[in-house]
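Most newcomers find our protein records easier to grasp once they have seen one. Sequence and backbone structure share a record, each on its own labelled line. To make this concrete, we reproduce a full record directly below:
***
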Amino acid sequence: MVNWVHVAKEHLVHRLAKMAGLRRCTVGVDNAGTVMSVWAPKDKLPATADAAEATKKEARREAGRLSVVLIHGFAGDGIFTWVLQVGALAKHYDVYVPDLLFFGGSTSGDARRTPAFQAECVAAALRRLGVERCAAVGFSYGGFVAFGMAEVVCTGCSLPSMPRSTGEAMLRRLGAASFAELLLPDDAAGLRSLFAAGAYRKWSRWFPDFVLKDYLKLMIFNRKERAELLEGIVVSDKDAAAAPSFQQDILLLWGENDIVFTMELASKLKEQLGQKASLRSISKAGHLVMLERPRVFSRCLTEFLQQQQPRSTTTTAAASEAGRRPTSARAFEARVIE
């Protein structure tokens, strides 16, 4: 039976990404079987280790062109989330769109499930592709990951870890017993509720059940691992009490009508982050702001990125646990898969 979401993804979403000059590749990042799927500029994909080193040297020579990494949230993979942004951004920047671990084509045998490990693996994959400095743009769960990377643009995200009281209040507001129940629906009704919570305009009510079921089959898998990822972002209020410190400029770009991470939470986050952070809101948009108001979102994002462009971009620094990094004991090559 035809999966119509798969058809739309292959023939529309992927085609738009290719028109923007991107190609999908897989990158091995360690000896534990961790593989990252990444959409990257086709002219930046190295075929061999020697080519990768040459790409790194050229990237250093072309320091004026900023690399922008778009990191997705929990309800979809990378290119499905950011398809409406890649065309506009690729005109001016080198755009990279990874699938986080256990989404899309990315997987790992490592037992770690923290945003820090996700950031570490994204950064390792980027280094394999010759990217050493970048601006990271994170949506929702991807915002937790983005905080572990270089220049940070956070869309609809909270702190690098979520205080338990904040998570409990969010679940009460959304009428869910757990984040797994909310973000890993197992039927069309649950997925419709998830989309309704994320959008200002309730367009999900018009989706027929067969489309939602097709989306579930295509996008919602690795349920055990994803449930563990959700557990990895919640910490006790005591552990989350210390405000994070960042040297990079940070843009908090929010949907004004977001009921998942509210504007009140955004304002508190800006206050905690200090002078390096700025907050902009987009009217008539909810949590899925980049999909509901794509042109406004892209314009706000580009204005911020243009302010970073004249100076040297910030080093891609992946957060690590106990000083561990993906091993570089052997060469890991990028393999183009389409």
